[in-house]
Structure formats: structure tokens, C-alpha cells
């Protein structure tokens, strides 16, 4: 029987796909309907969803309050309490877990010891409209209940691209290059997802890497309980 993983704040299933590839039976929960989610899905409040019956948990609470884009004058969207609430809840659960969020000082304050993953660690990327290959620069922080070694980020000094906004961006300068929708799906490794799903998503390569180590933590916990 496969270990069951609860994918909280699951969006369109980027994280869930990586865990499924690592061998988990994945169940997603999100406050919004997610018709593109590839696994068992339940619409509901991920901040209070029961953890009973699951072997591990992944959570990606909304990050707007902690994003660096807040420095551009966006209004607070009222989600800041979800991250510390989720960290406390999963630590107290005793279950093996992974919590993901954007990279910022505010997030690091709530997730001490979190590791950072980048698309360059997994060879992710796509060509831009001019035929130039761009590495996916998508830094995300992950707090885990288990130790792990992290590959080196190699995006510095290379031609990079990101996934944000709508359509191709920054070809002639500006904020930085952003992949158009089809290239975003390719760079993220999420061919089933919408553009917004890619913008909010986690590349499955990240969570497949994490999931292999999470699986070891789950099996070790099962062995101790046996």
C-alpha cells in the first residue's frame, strides 16, 4: 500500500505530481475548484483539513503577504497568518512534512533552516522566442521535517527565465525575462496546467527530489511504529 500524502493548498498539482512520481498516493485540497488537478481532489479549507489517515503532508500556503512583489506597492492580501499557522500545525502533528513558500526575509523568519531549490539544479528551462535556451530561475524555500543535502544552484551568470504574469515578458529589457504560456509549461514541466497554474505552481522536479527523501522518512517512521 502506497503511503498517502496530503497536498494542502494544492492549486493545479505541480507539487503533487512530483510526489506521485516519488511513489506517494496523493490527495489534494484547495479552497478553489481545481479541475486540472491530476489526482484525488477535495475543495475545502486547507488550513483546517484533517491530517488523519495520511503518512506525510506537503503545504504551500498563499505567499502574497511575503512576496518581494509587495515592495512594488501591492496591498496586503491578508494571508500572512497562514504560513506560521501551517508551520506550527505540521510540526505539532508529528508527521513527516514539507512546507513551501517564496524566498524572502519574511518567509525565512517563519521557516528557519529552510533550503532553497532552483530550476538550474534540475536542468529545467525552455527556449525563448528568439531560440535562446534559458534556465528556469525559480527560487523557492522548503522547510522539511527531515535533513537533506541540496544540489548547487547554478543560475547566476547564465541566461535565465521566470514564470510570472501573462505572456512573454522582458525580451527587450525590463523586469526580467518571463516565459510565454507554452514555454512556461515546458520550463516548469507542467504540460497540463494553465498559465496561472504555472505561475502559482512548483515544478514537479522539485518535489520528486524532496519526495524521495520524504518517502525514506515515512518508511522509517513506519518501521519504528511496527
What does this structure look like?
By secondary structure, the protein is α/β, with parallel strands linked by helices. The protein has a single domain (4-225), classed as Rossmann fold (3-Layer(aba) Sandwich). Helix content is 27%, strand content 19%. It contains six helices and ten strands. It has helices spanning 14-21, 82-93, 105-110, 181-188, 195-200, 204-225, and strands at residues 4-8, 25-30, 40-43, 56-59, 97-102, 115-117, 125-127, 133-136, 140-144, 160-161. Strand 4, helix 2 (82-93) and strand 5 (97-102) form a beta-alpha-beta unit. Helix 1 crosses helix 6 (204-225). The longest helix is centred in the C-terminal third of the chain and has 22 residues, at 204-225. Mean pLDDT is 90; it is low at 66-78.
Question: Layout of SSEs?
Answer:
Blueprint: E1 4-8, H1 14-21, E2 25-30, E3 40-43, E4 56-59, H2 82-93, E5 97-102, H3 105-110, E6 115-117, E7 125-127, E8 133-136, E9 140-144, E10 160-161, H4 181-188, H5 195-200, H6 204-225
Parallel strand pairs: 1-2, 1-4, 2-3, 4-5, 8-10
Antiparallel strand pairs: 5-9, 6-9, 7-8
Amino acid at each position: 500500500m502506497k503511503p498517502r500524502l496530503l497536498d494542502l493548498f494544492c492549486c493545479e498539482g505541480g507539487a503533487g505530481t512530483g510526489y506521485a512520481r516519488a511513489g506517494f498516493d496523493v490527495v489534494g485540497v484547495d479552497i478553489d475548484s481545481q479541475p486540472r488537478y491530476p489526482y484525488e481532489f477535495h475543495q475545502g479549507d486547507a488550513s483546517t483539513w484533517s491530517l488523519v489517515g495520511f503518512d506525510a503532508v506537503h503545504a504551500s500556503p498563499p505567499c502574497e503577504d511575503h512576496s518581494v512583489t509587495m515592495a512594488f506597492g501591492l496591498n496586503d492580501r491578508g494571508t500572512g497568518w497562514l504560513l506560521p499557522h501551517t508551520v506550527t500545525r505540521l510540526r505539532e502533528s508529528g508527521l513527516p512534512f514539507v512546507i513551501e513558500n517564496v524566498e524572502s526575509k519574511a518567509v525565512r523568519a517563519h521557516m528557519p533552516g529552510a533550503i532553497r531549490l532552483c530550476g538550474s539544479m534540475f536542468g529545467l528551462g525552455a527556449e525563448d522566442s528568439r531560440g535562446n535556451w534559458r534556465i528556469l530561475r525559480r527560487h523557492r524555500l522548503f522547510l522539511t521535517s527531515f535533513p537533506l543535502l541540496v544540489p548547487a544552484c547554478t543560475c547566476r551568470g547564465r541566461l535565465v527565465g521566470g514564470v510570472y504574469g501573462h505572456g512573454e515578458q522582458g525580451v527587450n529589457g525590463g523586469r526580467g525575462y518571463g516565459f510565454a504560456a507554452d514555454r512556461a509549461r515546458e520550463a516548469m514541466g507542467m504540460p497540463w496546467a494553465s498559465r496561472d497554474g504555472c505561475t502559482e505552481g512548483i515544478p514537479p522536479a522539485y518535489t520528486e527530489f524532496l519526495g524521495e527523501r520524504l518517502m525514506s522518512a515515512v518508511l522509517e517512521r513506519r518501521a519504528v511504529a511496527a
